[in-house]
Every structure is written in structure tokens, then in C-alpha cells.
Amino acid sequence: MFETLEPLAPDSILGVTIAYRRDTSPLKVDLGVGVYRDDSGNTPVPAAVREAERALIGAQTTKSYVGPAGNLEFNERIIALALGPLAAGLADRTSTIQTVGGCGALRLGAELVKVGRPDTVVHVSDPTWANHEPLVGSSGMRLVRYPYFDAARRAVAFDAMLSHIDKLPTASLVLLHACCHNPTGADLSPDQWQALAAVIEHRGLVPFVDLAYQGFGDNLETDAVGVRTLAARVPELLLAVSCSKNFGLYRERTGALAVISATSVARNAVATHQARLARRMYSMPPDHGAAIVASVLADASLRQHWEEEVGSMVARMKSLRALFAARLAARLPGHDFGWVSRQRGMFSLLGLPEADIARLRDEHHIYMPPDGRVNVAGISDANVDYVADAVANLLA
Ligand code: LMR
User: Which residues contact 9 (CB under 8 A, 6 or more apart)?
Assistant: First the structure.
């Protein structure tokens, strides 16, 4: 059966981790996969998450099935975290299902759209996260890119984006990064979100918002401005949420897909389709991460502790951006590195050709995906000068 299969090339992001692990050089630096790291290079479990986990293990009396929709308390609380005060007013039009991470939410959302309207075309930013196209495109829907990033200004090409989206056919699906755009780090301002929401509403488009980094841009509230602006305005919206980064629950695969429908009748039908799709793909999601998140969000003191921990992660990423920008500027006076600090979240694009990214890997043992996306959380006091030297040489 499998003798005709050819081996595939490594995944463009996960393959970087494999190559990095194989490298025995003491100089090696991992700026690849998007995981937060502390100054010693560890990806910590937040203390509030550990505490909730300990209590959960002590109190849990059964491992019986939870059902395709997963942990209902988690579903409610995670959407309240994303939508804030809007969540209550939208509750009768919102149907949320726990998913296998944010990836599971994207895939399930795509399958749901395909069931609702099989000829839907999905519009994705150019560039977008390397796994968006495989995840959403595997549903069979056609994907088309919209202009997003102005590489010369290293900022959102907002006018081009808006005028492109303003010409899309009604009912097109528009995939948007809520914050911390992956891979560019370039985000929309609150005013730009307002303008985009007006166009999306006016043209009858359906936003599919990927909220993978809430709390990693500025804070939990401001990072949700985009999705809240849209949710307040449009009749239908899909929202994929990931708890991998802000709760540090990467391997627990904890996420949710919320669908806001135009009516509560449609919402009830959507809920049945979400459950059936999950049942057909994987039956039901793993419980552990969702149970932890539900307890953290339900307990005022754990929640406050967790919010402080997210705050210190984002503060560290901002200070690393400032440090990296300063070290590059010191090596290349006259070049403007303000963009490194202006961009948000874990990622920025170096703007170097693929051949230079291969040189960083082969000659300097500095690892990142071939598009030159750096995970700024992989920079540390110990390696910043080494990385700045190598990158500045290529940027000169
Ligand atoms: C990334 O972009 O590096 C992360 O979202 C991890 C992944 O699955 O690609």
C-alpha cells in the first residue's frame, strides 16, 4: 500500500527544531518554532498553571469521556476572555467547541464552512503562518492571498489590504490574525480594525479570526480589540483560540472554536455540526489542558497570578526587541531598526533571502524557518551579540 509513497520534505517550522537538536555546536541558537523562552532558554509552565494542575490531579475522580464539545466551562470562560464584555450579549448566537489546540480550531472551522457553503473561497494574508494554508486548504476550499505586508516599510500595507478586501465577493471568508501577526509581527491599529470591520460588514464577508497570541502583543485586553471590533459589528464570525502560548500549554493541545451565527436558530444547528465534525475527525478533545485553563480563569487569585505571568512574558519580549534593535543599530549606524521594537509578539521577518538564512544556519548555527522569521523570545543576553553580529553582516 505505501510502497509508492515518497518521503516528504521536513515541515518548514517543525523541521527547524529537528535540525537544531541535531546540531552539536555550542554556539547554536534556536530562533525557530514559536514557543516562549525565558533567559535560560526554557519554556516554563506558568506557576498559576502548575498550581491549577496540582489541584486538578488531587481532585479528579474520573477519566471518563467528556463529549465532543469538550469542557463546557472552559468553552464559556475562554470565549469570555477573548470577547470580554461582548461575550454575554452574543451568547445566544455563539457556539463554542473545545478543540485540539488552535490548529484543531482552524481545521474544524474550515470543515464547518465547507459544510455550510462548499464553494467558499478563503482569503489569507500575504504572507501568513506556514500552517494556515495546509490546515484550512485541506478542507478542499480554494485559498487566495490578500496584500498584507509592506516589506519596504516593514509594516501593514493597510491601504492595499483594505482596497483588496473591499472588492471580494459577498460571503468570502477572510482569515485574520487577531494580534502578533505570524510571521511579520505587524498588526493593525484599533482605527484600522474599525475601518476593516466596516468594509467586512458592508461587503457581507465572514471573518475567521485566529487568536493564537492573546496577551503576547501588549496585554490581554488590547490584543483582543480586533476580534471584539469585528464581533460587535458583523452577523457571522469564526474565532480560533489557542491556549498554547499564553497558558504555556503547548503539548496539551488546548484550544477552542467559537462560531457566531446570524441567529440563535442557526447557532443551534452550528453546534450540532461542530460536534459531528469533531466526532468524525477525532471524537473528542483531550481534557487536561482545558480543565486547567477553566480552573485558572475561574479562581480570582490564580487568574490574577496568571495575568501577571503573561504580563512578564510580554515585557520580556518587548525588552528583547529593544535589545536586539539596539545591538543591530550599534553595528549598522544609519540603518533604521525601529521596526523591531514596533512589531508585536514573538515574530519579525529579517527580510533576508533564503540563501542568507541558510548561511546563518550552516555557518553560524542560527536556526529559523526559511522565510527568515525570527522568534525574538529565542534571543537572550547570552546570544544577542552573536546573533546581531551574524545578522548585521548579512544586512549590511
Ligand atoms: C509557530 O508558528 O512557530 C507556532 O505556531 C508553532 C507551529 O505549530 O508552527
Answer: 15
- Say yes or no: CB of residue 104 within 6 Å of ligand 1: no
The chain-wide mean pLDDT, for the chain, equals: 97
Which residues does the annotation mark as catalytic? 129, 210, 212, 245
Residue 34 neighbours by CB distance under 10 Å: 23
Q: Which of 100, 129, 251 to mutate to test the pocket of ligand 1 (most atoms within 8 A of CB)?
A: 129
Q: Among the residues of 86-221, which ranges form H helices?
A: 86-90, 101-116, 132-137, 158-165, 190-203
Find where cell 545578522 sits: 391
Residue 78 C-alpha cell reads as 475562554
Q: Say if strands 373-375 and 347-349 run parallel, antiparallel, or are unpaired.
A: antiparallel
Q: Are 203 and 170 in contact (CB under 8 A)?
A: yes
Mutation probe of ligand 1 site: the residue of 30, 33, 216 with most atoms within 8 A of C-beta: 33
Q: Tell me the C-alpha distance between 325 and 340, whole Å.
A: 6
From atom 6 of ligand 1, which residue's Cα is the shortest distance away? 34
What DSSP designation does 154 have? T
Residue 174: per-residue pLDDT: 98
Query: What tens digit of pLDDT does each residue of 372-387 get?
Result: 999 999 999 999 999 9
Q: What are phi and psi of 289, to 5 degrees?
A: -60, -40
Q: Which of 80, 87, 70 is nearest to 254 (CA)?
A: 70
pLDDT given for residue 396 in this prediction: 85
Listed residue (314, 292, 317, 312) closest to 302, CA to CA: 292
Q: Tell me: the pLDDT tens digits for 188-234?
A: 999 999 999 999 999 999 999 999 999 999 999 999 999 999 999 99
All residues at 6 or more sequence positions from 293 whose CB lies less than 8 Å from its CB, including other chains: 74, 77, 78, 243, 247, 249, 254
* pTM, entire model: 0.97
The Cα-based distances of 173 to 181, 195, 344, 373 in angstroms read: 18, 17, 25, 26
Cβ atoms of 195 and 227 within 8 Å: the answer is no
3-state secondary structure of 93: helix
pLDDT given at position 196: 98
If you take atom 5 of ligand 1, which residue's CA is the nearest one? 34
Tell me, in angstroms, the distance from the centre of ligand 1 to residue 202's CA.
Answer: 33
